[in-house]
Every structure is written in C-alpha cells, then in structure tokens.
Amino acid sequence: MAEITATGDRRRLIAMLSPAYLWLTVAVFLPLSAMLFFSVLTALPQDGPDWSLTLQNYRLFLTDPVYATLLWKSLQLGLTVTVICILIGYPCALVLARTIRGRARETLFLLVILPFWSNSLVRIFSWAIVLRGNGVLELGLNAVLPFDVSLNLMFTTHAVVIGLVHSYLPYVILTSYLALQAIDDDIIDAARSIGAGTLTILWRLLLPLSLPGLLAGAVLVFVPVVGSFMEPRILGGRMGTYYGTVIEDQFVAVYNWPLGAALSFILLAVVLLILTLTSPILRKARL
Amino acid sequence: MTTARSSLSILALALATGAQADEIRVLNWQGYGTDTSFASEAFQEATGHSVIHEYFNSEQEMLTKLRTNPGAYDVVMINAVFMPQAVREGLVTAIDTAEVPNYTGIPEGFAADPKLMIDGEVYGVPWTWGLTSFAINTSAIPEAPTSIQALWDPAHAGRVSIRDDALEAMQLAALATGQDINEIADLGAAEAKLAELLPQLRTFWSSENDWNQFMAAGELDIATYWSGSAARSAALGLPVEFVVPEEGAIGWLDSLAVPASSSHQEAALAFIDWMIDPAFYVQWDAEGAPASANADAAAALPEDAFNRRVLGDPEVAARVRFQGELSDETRETYLRIWQGLKAAQ
Fold first, then answer.
1. Does residue A255 sit within a domain?
2. What is the interface pTM, i.e. ipTM, of the complex?
3. CA separation, residue A168 to residues A114, A164, A175, A217, B195 (Å)
4. pLDDT tens digits, A75-96
5. What domains sit in chain B, N to C, each tagged with a CATH number?
6. What's residue B9's pLDDT?
7. Would you say residue A158 lies in a domain?
8. Which H or E run includes A268?
9. Which residue of A has its CA nearest to B195?
10. Out of A78, A236, A268, B290, which could bridge A232 as a Cys pair, Cβ 3.0 to 4.6 Å?
C-alpha cells in the first residue's frame, strides 16, 4: 500500500519537475555542450571540411601570456566593482530595511529597481554623455564650483568602474535588503534592552544575520563583471581591453569561435574555482 | 544631362539582357552601394530582374555563407585580398567580360590585378577602391601635415584615434616605419612604433558615426579614416580634411563576382555591369561613395567631387600601396601582437 503511494508520488514528482529539467536541458545544457564541443575543434565544421579535435585552444591560454594577464585584470576589476557595490549598497539596504517605513520605503525601493527597467546599453551610453570631456558632469561642476575642474574621466578605468557599479549595484541592495528585512525586530529590542549600542547591534547582530544575503549579492556582481565586455568597450577606450572583450573579438571580429569558446570555458573554470575556494566562508556565514 | 545618360545606359542594359525576368540575390555589406533603392529600382525597370539583398558582417562570414549555401547567391562583393582564396575553394566562377560592356572602362592596373585575374581568367570585376589613411580636424590643425608621423606628434597627445583593428594598425605602423605593408619584415619595429602610438590615443573609433561624433565634439585632432567616409563627413559640414601622407596610404580594392553555384548568371552579369556604369556611379557619388574602379565612371564625376579631385590626382595615386593577399598565419601573428599591446595598457 505504502509502496504504491511512493510510486504515485514519484510519478507526480517527475511530471511536475520535467518542465524544469526540459528547460534546463534546452536552455543551459545544449548550448554549453555545443560550446564545449567548439572549444576542442581546429575549425568550425562548416568552415573547414578537414576539422579535427585538438586541445590547442586551451594550450594557447597557457603559452600566450596575454590571456592570463587579461584574466587577472578582469578579476581585479570584478573585485573592485564588488567591493564598491558592497560599500554603497549595504548601507542603502540597511537604511531602507531598518529605518524607513511605510510608503516612503516602497517609493525608494521602486527607485532602486527603476534602472533595471531600462536597457543596459542605454544606461552605459548615458554614462558616456555624463562623463565625457565637456560633458554633463563637468559642465554641472563648473557651474557650481568657483574654480575650473577638468575631470577627463571618459575612456579611463575609472569610467569603466563607475558604469559597472551603477549597472550591478541593485543586486547588492536587493539581496541585502531581503536578508535585513527578515531579521526579527524583537532580537534588536532584546539587544538594546541589555545595553547594546547601535554599532554593537550592527556589528554583532545585523551584519552576521544578513551576511548570506550580502554574499549572494556579491557573487551576483562578481561573476558577470569578470566576463563583462560591453561596458569596458564603450567607457574604457584604449584602457578597455579585458578578458571579456577578447572573447567577444574571437566571436565577432576574428571569427575564431573555437578559441573564443575555449577562453569562455577557462573563465567559467576559474570563476567556479574561486567560488569553491570561498565556499567554506560562504557556508560559515550561513550557519 | 545625368538623366539623359542614365536612361540611355538603362536602355543599353535592357537590350543586352533581353526580357526574361529573374530574381537575383546579392551578398554584400549593408548600406554599400548595391542596396541603394534607386539602383535596384532602375535595374528592375530596365531589365525586369528584381534584386534581393543579404548581408555579411565580416569577410570570413561571407566565405562561410558561400560555402554553406550553394545556389543561394548570384552576385557577391569580395575584397580583392580574399579573392584568391575564394577561387582556390571553387566558390566563384570565371566571368565572360564580353557580357559586361562597361568592363572596357576599367584600367589595366585594376583589371589585370593578379588577385582578380588568375591564369588569364577574370573572377572579379573591379568595382570600387579607396584609401585607409588619416584625416585631420581643420579647426585644430589649420595646415595639413605631410607626414604620417603627425599621429605620433606629442602636440596631439590624447587627441588621436585609430580603429581597433589588428591589420589596419600593423599596416599603419609599417608605413610609419618605412616598410612594405604586405610584407612587414621587421615586426619588432612595427610593434614598438604602435606601443608609442597607444598612449597618444583618446580612444578607438568603431564606426563612421562614432568618428563623426568625436570630430563634431572637438575631441579629436587627428584620426585614421577611410577616403570615402572622409568625403561623406566633409559633406556633412564637419571641418575634416583627408590626408595622403608622403609615406603612402593603404589601398583596398573591392570586386563583384558571381558564385559558381549561381543559377542566374546572365542576370548577375547584367547587375554587375549596372554597378560599374557611370550613370549609377554619378548618382551614388552624390550620396557619398568610394572611388569607382571604372575610369569612365570617375571621369563622369563633377570636377570638384572628392573622388575625382583627390583620388584622381596622379601624385596621390603614386603613393597608394594596395593590400596584397594575407595568409591566416600572418593574420594571427598581427592579432597576437595587437592584443598584446592593448593588454599592456
């Protein structure tokens, strides 16, 4: 009797899960396997009838120092952007979740998500208008300040960081906000009743309790920034060559898909390695 | 005058091709001459053949399309540099130039180019040519420099731009170091020259529109550019002057060819003939076109037209270094050098 229910349950389980797995197969597994296949080819089958399997594309990463240099540059960029996003985003989330109540919170929350509704390319081009020499920012500052400033931010690494922080900041705010909001007010009241100051509450209670959300936000920022190519290309000028732009070049300009695919998989491996190495810290934060 | 001539040549076209109506498919860059509406309308009116366009984004993509879609195209635009490869792979067919009356107007230098005429057979009809050199912002630099070294001039530091393209960058460096652009013997010298140029750059430009905006905003003094684009930018009213320095300029030649698998070869040749027709070219040039490879078409331009005044100058023509065929290995070497230089920034 119990067994029949078990098989019935299992059947129902399979029926309910199959759309999700089908979707994962079609949208994630198939494209990734195709890319993995491309990455070990000498040439795309439609281009070279005499294609064969090779590891040369992966070997190139080890023999040509350019790729490792660029990957290191991209990882540093990812780290910088993530740290700045946390420094700006976490306090925002804290204020939003703990001090502002009612309608004002909804409005502010909407303002945080609002940039997400516009196309990211449009946002980056708006930054180009703001940052360029004689642009909106410079004109504005010169109108307010008594002395002349020449920022010249456009086409520098700073411009790339500014654009990326603006694009990815909402992730940190959203995840931290959800974690902070879930903290029971009674815990804070209890701490205060036995004499804990605001800083102690923040350091000993709020930060540890919301750390999982904060770290989830950090991962959501770090991973795409390491592979970013559109922002560096538009805002970085001659400083804007990163690992992501080189991968894009292989697909768009040079038409060397096998090398582009191999470089993408190396990036995937490196990111997974970093996440694995940091996972003990992530797990500890969750406990 | 122009209308009279154009109706005449369309009449000639109609006589040459007969009344049978075909649909021909043309493979080209987008917005590059063949797909102007006046061209296909006049062609259809004269011959009854309709024209459908398909586009590619890189020469490699064009070759792949020819390989993988046999029979899909009747006319293809191929840069002369890529023609020997297309011929070797049997992608294009030999052309009977008697079917292309306007072919007689093409000067020997273009017609007998060894990249287009292989073993005595014509595979590509020279269509357009142009230069890659640089242009200056005349409001910043009143007097046009005579040397390519102007790009390296510290006076323009931070106000220079080139395109993010390995081949173009290496050939530019070859010119500046006095080397043959098709056979750069001292790659180290070219690389060192580019390493000196990079700190001069404001940014890389990527499209004509991009270039125009930088110039209009006064952000650039001097930047590499294409001859046809410079004519268009000047026509827009930008303070731009195209310079062909004494070290020389990079020349490119585009040709029209018929894929071996085409089933409408007669209509395809009629279309190619129309594309090198002076009547078509004069109208196209008014909108901003590269230089025509047909001498008759160039002679039909008004005397002050950029393509006649600058590119028709024999002194300029003597300085042009035409691009030769490039092996995949050389292409990869250039790319590696260029990526290395950019990564070091």
1. yes
2. 0.78
3. 13, 6, 12, 9, 34
4. 999 999 999 999 999 999 999 9
5. 2-128+253-308 (3.40.190.10), 130-250+321-343 (3.40.190.10)
6. 55
7. yes
8. helix A257-286
9. A238
10. A236
Asked if A70's CB is within 8 angstroms of B343's CB, the reply is yes
N residues, chain A? 287
Handedness of CA A266, A268, A271, A272 (dihedral sign): negative
Q: Are B145 and B136 in contact (CB under 8 A)?
A: yes
Q: Are B270 and B13 in contact (CB under 8 A)?
A: yes
Whole-angstrom Cα distance, residue B250 to residue B254? 13
- Are A42 and A51 contacting, i.e. CB atoms less than 8 angstroms apart? yes
Per-residue pLDDT of A203-262, as tens digits, reads: 999 999 999 899 999 999 999 999 999 999 999 988 999 999 999 988 877 778 899 999
Counting the structural domains of chain A, the total is 1
Looking at residue A34, its amino acid is A
Rounded (to 5) percent helix, strand, coil in chain B: 45, 20, 35
For A282, the enclosing helix (H) or strand (E) is helix A257-286
- Provide the CATH number for the domain around residue A240: 1.10.3720.10
pLDDT tens digits, one per residue of B139-152 = 999 999 999 999 99
Q: Does B57 touch chain A (CB under 8 A)?
A: yes
- The beta-carbon contacts of B62-68 under 8 Å, at least 24 apart in sequence, are B62/B27, B63/A47, B63/B89, B63/B91, B64/A44, B64/A46, B64/A47, B65/B27, B66/B27, B66/B91, B66/B92, B66/B259, B67/A46, B67/A47, B67/B91, B68/A46
Give the distance, in angstroms, between the CA of residue B286 and the centroid of all CA atoms in the same chain: 17
Residue in chain B closest to A64 (alpha carbons) equals B336
**Residue ranges making up the domain that contains A77:** 69-286
A268 and A260 in contact (C-beta within 8 Å)? no
- Residue B161: strand pairing partners: B203, B223
Q: How far does the CA of residue B128 sit from the closest CA of chain A (Å)? A: 23
What SS3 class is residue A5?
helix
| Per-residue confidence band for B2, with pLDDT thresholds at 50, 70 and 90 | very low
Backbone torsions φ then ψ of B70, nearest 5 degrees = -60, 140
Task: Identify whether A178 is part of a domain.
Answer: yes
Please name the residue that has the structure tokens 């701490």.
Answer: A191
> Which residues of chain A make contact with B58, given a CB cutoff of 8 A?
252-253, 255
With respect to residue A20, please indicate whether it lies within any of the assigned structural domains: no
pLDDT surpasses 50 at B276: yes
Q: CA A229, A230, A231 angle in degrees (round to 5)? A: 95
Higher per-residue pLDDT: B293 or B312: B293
The per-residue DSSP string of B186-253 comes to -HHHHHHHHHHHGGGEEEEE-SHHHHHHHHHTT--SEEEEEHHHHHHHHHTT--EEEE--TT-EEEEE
| b (16+ CB within 10 A) / e for B127-155 | bbbbbbbbbbbeeebeeebeebebbebee
Helix (H, G, I), strand (E, B), or coil: what is residue A184?
Answer: coil
Mean pLDDT value across residues B277-291: 89
Q: Are A74 and A243 in contact (CB under 8 A)?
A: yes
Q: Does the beta carbon of A116 lie under 8 angstroms from any beta carbon of chain B?
A: no
